[in-house]
Amino acid sequence: MPENQNTPQAGTFVSSPQTEQRYTPSEIEPRWQARWDANASLYAAEGHDSGKPKYYCLEMLPYPSGALHMGHVRNYAIGDALARHMWMRGYNVLHPMGWDAFGLPAENAALKNGVPPREWTLGNVAAMKKQMRRMGLSYDWSTEVTTCLPDYYRWNQWLFLKMFEKGLAFRKKSKVNWCPECCTVLANEQVIGGRCWRHEDTVVELRDLTQWFLRITKYADELLEGLDKLEGWPEKVRTMQRNWIGRSEGALVDFEVQRDSELASQRVSEKITVFTTRVDTIFGATSVQLAPEHAVAKTFALEDEALRVQIEGLLAEQQKARETDALGAIEKHGVNTGRFALNPFNGERVPIWVANYILADYGTGAIMSVPAHDERDFEFAQKYGLPVRPVIAAAGGEEPALPYTAEEDAVLIDSGVWSELRCAQAQEQMAEFAKAKGFGTSTVTYRLKDWGVSRQRYWGTPIPMVYCDKCSPDEPMPVKESELPILLPEQIDITQTNGSPLGRVAEFVNTTCPKCGGLARRETDTMDTFVDSSWYFYRYTDAKNSRAPFDSDKANYWFPIDQYIGGVEHAILHLIYSRFWTKVMRDLGMVKNDEPAERLFTQGMVIKDGAKMSKSKGNVVSPDDMIARYGADATRMYALFAAPPDRDLEWQEEGVAGISRFLGKVYRLTTKYADVAASSTYAAPRPKDQALLRRLHQTIAKITQDFDGRWHFNTSISSIMILVNEIIANEAAMDAGEISPAVVAEVFRGLILLLAPFAPFFAAEMWEQIGGEGVVFRTQWPVVNEELAREDEIEIPVQVNGKLVNVIKVPAGSDEAVVKAAALTDMKVVARIEGKTVVKVIVVPGKLVNLVVK
Ligand SMILES: [Zn+2]
Ligand SMILES: [Zn+2]
Fold this sequence. Notes:
Blueprint: H1 25-37, E1 54-59, H2 70-88, E2 92-94, E3 98-99, H3 104-113, H4 117-134, E4 145-146, H5 150-165, E5 169-179, E6 184-186, E7 191-192, E8 195-196, E9 205-214, H6 220-229, H7 235-245, E10 248-258, E11 271-276, E12 287-290, H8 295-303, H9 305-323, E13 334-342, E14 349-355, E15 366-369, H10 375-384, E16 392-394, E17 410-412, H11 423-437, E18 440-445, E19 451-452, E20 454-455, E21 465-468, E22 472-478, H12 506-509, E23 510-512, E24 519-522, E25 526-527, H13 529-539, H14 552-558, E26 563-567, H15 574-587, E27 600-603, E28 606-608, E29 611-612, H16 623-630, H17 632-641, E30 649-650, H18 653-672, H19 674-677, H20 687-708, H21 713-729, H22 731-735, H23 741-755, H24 760-769, H25 786-789, E31 793-800, E32 803-811, H26 816-825, H27 827-833, E33 838-844, E34 848-853
Parallel strand pairs: 1-2, 1-26, 3-4, 12-14, 26-27, 28-30, 31-34
Antiparallel strand pairs: 5-6, 5-9, 7-8, 9-19, 10-11, 10-13, 10-18, 12-15, 13-14, 16-17, 20-25, 21-22, 21-24, 23-24, 28-29, 31-32, 33-34
The chain binds zinc ion (2 copies).
């Protein structure tokens, strides 16, 4: 708890213990929660016709694991403070909550405890909802969304059918990431450093499977360009998404593999297609480099046992680097295969290498190596003694140091008919030439891949497709919309081997063909749970709709989300998928917005003893324990007070106890002056009145600013503490009648309103005590009176050559000349600059004076 200059001296105030009451959150909080529960409209959003501006405040919906953890508490405390504040600022606020309720843990629990996934999940939902109520969170439960219930997931199926119609949902055989622990396919985004996102110790395998995909790559450019407009998103998240999408413009060029052995006659021509962003440097290519998993490398390996062993070694190094997320820093190794390829531009033979730093799943898995004009290629060529041949020079003619990677003001040299062209021009013309000659083309590549959504699991949305051996043995057919929802069967034997559990439920699998009416089979894969969270926030605007996912008018009123709040761990999974989904729904005519959320806030983690709270580390602090000991208000307020919300927070129980004692102080004061605070007569303020009012209005200004700006709720709360200390310092004066009752009234009223977003139970109780009218959260947020807030004198630090020498006092609002004169005549400053020449005086109005002396 920060101490400050206003800390009262012991004995300066008179207390009257016989009339004092103690702050007992365990009594106050449940009493208010019961009252709020009985008032169904308290946190309900109003209609479009409310006449107020709308504000959609949203925290990411939790997975119903069974109990809230401190990370949740922090996330919800931030969102709740904001929602309450916006209500008090006169907005029509939508503040909903729901459950991301499909997923593997429910199946694991079923295996372990024999409880059906649905029962386990809904039991957890009930338990967590109870915890949320106990915390006093202002959710509109009438719009609650539970993604595992058919009233929600039927719309996943409906949207899937719409995407199938548009060619956005499709099946293809592909290499997929397979977690042997989950027994299911993972999306690329769910593979972290080569391991499963749920199983940190399990290395993900590659398998060939026919899977369902959503064509997110169709929106790659729009997803990328849209990031520039998302100015209300953290730069960190935008950068992560840019890198994830990984757009690069370039050319594909085919290098023919040259065969001089008899093996050659057995094959039709083999070629290696390289992707390059610098086709203009192709005359400088001195080798072609393949990923260890490249098809041509595999062919060579089959022909040459020694080479096979070497290539496998390179692959192992690459896998190891993937697992430890160290691909970027991998020590580069390669082997010369002894084979050659032909550069189609000049017919030159270049050696083919296999290298550990080339990835099969990026670009084409093959590059041309141009050491003179690429850092990485240069490094590799130096190591293995490969030739370095410059083919680009500075336009001015001087010899640049190698590798020379500039494109601006650079021209081609020693490049046949393209010599003397500018790089950009050459890139265009050479790609056109390659296309005309049939050995290449210009292209754009993305790191982003289509989103694999098939899961061989039970607890997810069934994919609404059927297969008929008669009509279309290989191609799936969509089920009729009128048949939705395709319900998940409830009584099912869960196992995690041999494919999807649904495949063993005959009643589910067997169905009739939509075309011929004969026997058909249902698709037994279910959808990735990230489908559920891609559009849940639209459903909140119309959660009971049984004819459509939501009404477009309602969604268009509330969207985009004004403020979305959640963990940065969702920067690329959920936050890219939901942007894609919004664009698809826009193109289906369902919504008008291009992006789901105008502003995004990512809060820091809650840590304990220097590490993230986790069961395995034994450092978990239970919110229930904290609430039982100190109350929900103190727990929430501590979560906001202990660190700026975007930073990590080190949980210290002593801090929660401190907040509880602080609220106890405010409780004592408010109950003591409740009758005075209820008074409404106003008189002209006297000096002591003025000092107290100044502090109040400065606090209002500070907190209003924090809500509008950087959300430094930690300093908001400490400014409330400073205000309370000032009240305590004035307690004797208030008791002696030296402070007007009307001023006391204004101060307490303001104090309680300022506390309302942070400690809602407490504020409601105190508001009633002072006879406040109506509901405290619907009372107008206090407005700053600039006149009252102004300081008579302000303190300005004076520096000499950047070093602090003294802090001087000047009248508030002094102009530069006055501040300068005050600084130059200050005794300490005069002593410091004696015998020196003042070269410059820099005055930052209201902030700082810096003297530059020699
Ligand atoms: Zn796994
Ligand atoms: Zn059929």
